[in-house]
Design brief:
Chain lengths: ~270, ~290, ~400
């Protein structure tokens, strides 16, 4: 017991005095990207400290209001109410697009369905279409996987594909994107949506049409960069205008070649 | 009664007994087997991942490389923090129950409260920790808030073992000490506490074993997804093994690359819990032996 | 001096004796004060209001109706007690699409006029806009808001905590999911638990018992997140393949994991209870010519039934409150389960999954605290049952 206490004391003493640390907090979607960028940033500048924590877009923005974070990550745009609140406390939120993220609709690799229109997707996620044969597949029940209600990805998919309507209540909500991949790869009748960055050979991505079936586009970094793939959203950093000088070096780093390469590497589309 | 001399009935009931006992044995072994399957599964898949780098490095490459050192340290801090809170408070409270409380209804009431506290789900502790420590006392997401929340979880276990340990001490020790002119406080400090200590420590270690594996209470009070450096003060967040296992197993961009890390984390977590249980068991056995030889 | 220390010690001990009671009171206080706020929240998201055309007479909309209107499942005002005209949904985002930034003003100072313009133009419109923009206007009809009714929460069957404009907090599916998965967990754990505890207490040679006991304790010591991980990686795919299920994440997967987690509690408590059965009673039974099995189920089990009950009830308590393992394997679909092979969503899993992103002080945050209160009371009732049973047991002796 004494040894343990001594160890703690020593490790506390040995911990470095905190340098001008930057804190990044918010959306779990942006988290892996921020974490990787922070890692590289710190390698190039050993004196810098960047702490990255998740919690969600809303958490990040409210932390920005309290001043407990320097950068708020958000996978959605700052809400009107949040902006007003910040204005009231004499902070001006500034927006910075870190990267773009495309959402891919995924199914089990054995599913013969290759493409769907937005209207069909809306029907599926709202529970109006329940069998794969209604959209040209086998006679099998559609198992719908979604993210938890609180995630930015959930909100964006709802906004873009469901046109702001609500999901059916029977969707399986997964706590994280990894779990969706895992489940869809195991379940024959499954459909789900994930960020392009998460796509892997365990699941099959569908081509999507936003013009009623005239043009189908498969999700890829290329089609998303050219603007042909429709389900693309910007990922944001928000910071207080008064705090700009402090976060500038890191934001500038995001525009460097290595950072852009890393962004692409992780499956996001560089700004 | 005459039936008992009926050999056919006797044979039947013996056969029934053999069958039932056989079934029970089978089920018992099945449970043991389940444990070994779970442990074996995690050990086999995890042990190949665990090496010196894994144990001493921070995660790299977006959680697909490196190690889990910050999570190990974080879990250690949380265990220590919760022990620093739960141990003194729990022991004193347990002593009160055994030595001071006027028996009857009051003790029954306090004991009921302690049992109720033990039965509260860990997620409710998490809610409370978030509302009270994080928000109301304004500790923020921090090691302090996490430790206190976990400490509350460990408290009933420490209280209960302390109370039992003190109760099991023969009254003659107390009487002897008091007869020599010692006050009650002196008796407790010099005579009873040393005798009860091994069992109290056992209880503490067991509760720490539980604390080290809890995720729900630290979800909203302390745990961080990624921290490049070790926490510098008790007001910092920290990473923790169970939470790390949860995030690595369910989120992240590259599930296949993360799976080995998840297995490795589960392995380290299991080893910590096993070691805690083992140590507690050894202390208990040592103590029981000493008691038996007396 | 000695006396003084003694008195001080007595006081310190007395105060700390009540620490658990104090903690419970604190927990109740904080959980309640947060949860109670839910019923003071307006139906429509805070800071927003629903605006209708002046000619529209609809004056009260429930959360359910608002959701159906905005989902375009209700397309005519007739269905919610209005005149026969089609519904047109209007959101703040539509404003950005219809007008340029200059028209709206940098600080949205003209936005109110533009919204009113839209609302005046369409008789069937329902606009979801920030209150500050349209406050005090008389040229449009603002739907008066009311607070969230208790009935809709406790008896509601839909859980849409982030639906806009008005979230729906029906807790029945979550409660049903929790009870359902725990019920099956106990159904699975009970035969195993009884068999193993009887075997360990009565049948097994001491050597075997000595090995089994730490094994069971270890089973109880494995962190729940490890069980969840194991369930996710092994049990879910296994179930899916063996039963050819459309989905592996199901109540059954949760029940199996929970059964494993409840077993150690059930076994340890019932085994202790059976070991406490007096030797004389067993010997009397055996002397009358009963076999050991007859002795067990006619004498030992009835004698220790209250202890066994406590064990089982404690096991139920553990299953109901379990969070992480369930979160990882049950699929978390907020529907009232009709079969154990369906995915379901439990109260603890809901809290764990949603609290992180629910803004503090908002309706969603408070609804999650209300779930915590419900969970707290369920476990409190369970524990009180155990106390009662064991108290009766003591007086019996």
């Amino acid at each position: 017991m004494k040894k343990l206490a001594l160890f703690l004391l020593l490790s506390l003493l040995a911990a470095p005095v905190r340098l001008a640390a930057q804190r990044i907090k918010g959306s779990d979607t942006v988290l892996p990207l921020s974490q990787a960028l922070a890692e590289m940033f710190m390698q190039s500048r050993p004196q810098a400290t960047v702490t990255v924590t998740g919690g969600g877009s809303g958490v990040g923005i409210s932390a920005l209001m309290d001043g407990t974070t320097d950068l708020a990550m958000a996978s959605r745009r700052i809400k009107f109410g949040e902006k007003m609140k910040m204005k009231q406390s004499h902070h001006t939120p500034c927006e910075f697009v870190v990267a773009y993220d495309a959402l891919a609709v995924i199914v089990h690799p054995s599913n013969p369905v290759k493409r769907l229109t937005r209207e069909q997707l809306e029907g599926i996620f709202r529970g109006k279409i329940t069998n794969w044969k209604q959209v040209g597949g086998e006679d099998a029940k559609i198992i719908v996987y979604s993210r938890e209600t609180s995630s930015g990805t959930y909100e964006f998919f709802k906004e873009s594909v469901l046109r702001n309507k609500n999901y059916m209540s029977g969707v399986l909500s997964m706590p994280a994107t990894g779990a969706i991949i895992q489940s869809v790869s195991q379940t024959r009748g499954a459909i789900g949506y994930v960020g392009l960055a998460y796509l892997n050979p365990m699941v099959k991505a569908l081509a999507v049409s936003y013009d009623g079936g005239r043009h189908y586009v498969a999700p890829s970094v290329k089609s998303a960069m050219s603007g042909r793939y429709p389900v693309v959203r910007p990922l944001y950093y928000y910071y207080d205008k008064a705090n700009e000088a402090r976060v500038r070096p890191f934001l500038r780093f995001i525009d460097t070649k290595v950072a852009r390469a890393k962004t692409l590497d992780l499956g996001f589309i560089p700004r | 009664m005459a039936l008992q001399f009926d050999p056919a009935y006797n044979r039947r009931k013996r056969r029934l007994q053999t069958a039932v006992f056989g079934l029970f044995r089978l089920l018992s072994y099945a449970i043991a087997l389940v444990l070994f399957v779970i442990l074996g599964f995690i050990i086999v898949k995890g042990i190949s991942v665990v090496n010196w780098t894994f144990l001493t490095q921070a995660p790299t490459d977006g959680m697909t490389g490196g190690g889990i050192w910050p999570a190990i340290v974080g879990t250690f801090y949380l265990m220590l923090g919760s022990a620093l809170f739960a141990f003194p408070v729990g022991v004193v409270s347990g002593i009160y129950m055994s030595e001071y409380a006027p028996g009857g209804k009051l003790v029954a009431f306090i004991r009921m409260m302690t049992n109720n506290l033990a039965g509260i789900p860990s997620i409710v502790f998490g809610l409370f920790g978030m509302a009270f420590f994080v928000t109301y006392l304004d500790f923020g997401d921090s090691i302090l808030a996490g430790s206190l929340t976990l400490g509350l979880l460990a408290l009933p276990i420490v209280i209960r073992t302390t109370e039992e340990a003190f109760r099991d001490i023969a009254p003659s020790y107390r009487e002897g000490s008091l007869a020599l002119g010692a006050t009650k406080a002196q008796t407790i400090w010099h005579v009873l506490l040393p005798m009860a200590m091994p069992r109290v420590i056992t209880g503490l270690i067991l509760s720490l074993g539980r604390v080290s594996g809890e995720t729900a209470p630290i979800l909203f009070t302390c745990a961080a997804y990624f921290l490049p450096k070790l926490p510098a003060s008790i007001f910092d967040q920290c990473m923790a093994l169970p939470y790390h296992l949860y995030v690595v197993a369910t989120s992240g961009t590259d599930i296949e690359a993360q799976m080995p890390i998840a297995y490795g984390t589960a392995f380290v977590l299991i080893v910590i819990v096993l070691v805690m249980n083992l140590v507690a068991g050894l202390i208990r056995r040592h103590f029981e032996k000493k008691l038996n030889t007396k | 001096m000695k006396k003084w220390i003694d008195r001080l010690a007595r006081r310190v001990f007395t105060v700390s004796g009540f620490v658990t009671s104090a903690v419970i009171l604190l927990i109740i206080g904080f959980l309640f004060s947060e949860a109670a706020g839910l019923f003071r929240q307006p139906i429509v998201e805070e800071g927003y209001v629903l605006a209708l055309n002046k000619s529209n007479t609809v004056d009260r909309l429930s959360a359910e109706e608002i959701k159906l209107l905005f989902d375009e499942d209700i397309t005519n005002w007739r269905d919610v007690g209005g005149a026969d005209m089609p519904v047109r949904v209007f959101r703040l985002e539509d404003l950005d699409r219809l007008y340029t930034e200059e028209e709206l003003g940098a600080e949205y100072e003209h936005a109110g006029d533009k919204i009113a313009e839209q609302v005046r133009a369409d008789r069937g419109i329902i606009a979801f806009v920030p209150t500050v923009l349209v406050e005090g206007r008389t040229d449009i009809h603002l739907v008066p808001d009311h607070t969230i009714p208790v009935k809709d929460v406790l008896l509601g069957t839909e859980w849409y905590p982030t639906a806009t404009p008005s979230p729906i907090f029906g807790m029945v599916p979550l409660l049903a999911g929790t009870l359902w998965v725990s019920f099956f967990a106990i159904l699975i754990a009970l035969p195993f638990g009884l068999a193993v505890s009887i075997y360990m207490a009565e049948v097994a040679p001491p050597g075997v018992s000595r090995v089994l006991k730490p094994v069971i304790e270890l089973l109880g010591g494995i962190p729940s997140v490890v069980y969840g991980f194991f369930g996710l990686a092994v049990i879910v795919p296994l179930l899916q393949q063996t039963f050819r299920l459309p989905v592996g994440e199901s109540g059954l997967a949760g029940s199996i994991v929970l059964a494993l987690m409840a077993l150690p509690t059930i076994i340890t408590v019932s085994e202790d209870a059976m070991r406490n059965c007096p030797r004389t009673m067993r010997e009397a039974s055996l002397a009358l010519g009963a076999t050991r099995w007859q002795t067990i189920y006619k004498v030992v089990v009835p004698y220790s039934i209250s202890g066994i009950t406590s064990g089982v009830v404690l096991g139920i308590g553990r299953a109901i409150g379990e969070t992480m393992a369930v979160l990882m394997v049950t699929g978390n679909a907020a529907v009232i389960p009709t079969s154990i092979l369906d995915p379901l969503r439990t109260i603890p899993a809901t809290i764990a999954a949603e609290l992180g992103e629910a803004p503090a002080g908002g309706a969603h945050y408070q609804a999650l605290f209300l779930l915590g209160v419900i969970l707290f009371f369920i476990t409190l009732i369970i524990n009180s049952c155990v106390e009662l049973v064991s108290a009766r047991n003591k007086t019996k002796r």
